[in-house]
């Protein structure tokens, strides 16, 4: 997210760690700070059907979130992650709902964070990602355009015990009930000056 001053962190929430239907929901409590942003990360695995892991919608209190990017691996395990945001969510309880294209044979889960102080006109400064399934440590290299960017990563790894990269703040690090994959979120809240940043985890 872009901002004219440093964004600040508000709260974290997560769904249940196991779910095999095509929908899941959970509550996220947003504080009363100004210029709020709700960021949602989704993670899914299916044994056979890659298409089932595609997210068709994410909402917060019924309001449609905007998809930033979706990444998948379909070579062996059918895995996907996606990143979404909702501008100016209401203060208080927001029910987050995620819908996938089909019922998931292994899991579909999610986590969210909320931030204050994010530019509401242009909340998305830059985005990057990809599939590093066959590399030792997952990473994404991003180049921000404006000072004071808040960078959020949504990482899915097929091991447990991931350690967050230097300069990042770990927000979510938990394992799924099925298959014991790691669903991970970290942030860099004030990327100044703008430029290159690598968001990585050691596994």
Summary keywords:
four-stranded antiparallel beta sheet; mainly beta; single chain; 203 residues; 0% helix
Mind explaining what this structure looks like?
It is a single chain. This protein is mainly beta. The chain is built from no helices and 15 strands. The protein has strands spanning 8-14, 23-30, 37-46, 55-60, 63-64, 66-73, 78-87, 92-100, 107-116, 139-143, 149-157, 163-164, 169-175, 182-191, 196-202. It has a five-stranded antiparallel beta sheet, with no helix packed on it. Strand 13 (169-175) and strand 14 form a beta hairpin. The chain is globular. The two termini are 27 Å apart. The mean pLDDT is 93.
Question: Any idea what the radius of gyration is?
Answer: 16 Å
What is the 3D form?
Answer: globular
As residue ranges, the low-confidence spans are none
For the biggest β-sheet, the strand order reads 1-9-3-7-6
Helix tally?
Answer: 0
What is the N-to-C succession of helices and strands? EEEEEEEEEEEEEEE
Please give the number of β-strands: 15
Query: How far is the first residue's CA from the last residue's CA?
Result: 27 Å
Put the structure in a nutshell.
This protein has 203 residues and is mostly beta strands.
Describe how the helices and strands are arranged.
Blueprint: E1 8-14, E2 23-30, E3 37-46, E4 55-60, E5 63-64, E6 66-73, E7 78-87, E8 92-100, E9 107-116, E10 139-143, E11 149-157, E12 163-164, E13 169-175, E14 182-191, E15 196-202
Antiparallel strand pairs: 1-9, 2-8, 3-7, 3-9, 4-5, 4-8, 6-7, 10-15, 11-14, 12-15, 13-14
């Amino acid at each position: 997210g872009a901002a004219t001053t440093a964004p600040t962190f508000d709260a974290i929430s997560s769904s249940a760690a196991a779910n095999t239907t095509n929908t899941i929901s959970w509550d996220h409590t947003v504080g009363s700070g100004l210029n709020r942003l709700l960021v949602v990360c989704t993670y899914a695995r299916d044994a056979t059907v890659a298409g089932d892991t595609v997210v068709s919608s994410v909402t917060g209190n019924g309001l449609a979130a905007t998809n930033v990017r979706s990444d998948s691996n379909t070579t062996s395990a059918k895995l996907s992650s996606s990143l979404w945001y909702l501008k100016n969510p209401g203060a208080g309880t927001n029910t987050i709902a995620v819908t996938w294209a089909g019922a998931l044979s292994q899991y579909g889960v999610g986590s969210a964070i909320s931030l204050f102080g994010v530019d509401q006109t242009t909340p998305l400064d830059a985005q990057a990602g990809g599939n590093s399934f066959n590399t030792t440590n997952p990473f994404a290299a991003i180049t921000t355009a404006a000072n004071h960017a808040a960078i959020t990563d949504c990482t899915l790894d097929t091991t447990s015990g991931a350690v967050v990269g230097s300069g990042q703040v770990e927000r979510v690090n938990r394992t799924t009930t099925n298959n014991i994959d790691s669903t991970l979120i970290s942030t860099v809240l004030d990327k100044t000056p703008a430029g290159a940043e690598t968001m990585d985890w050691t596994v």
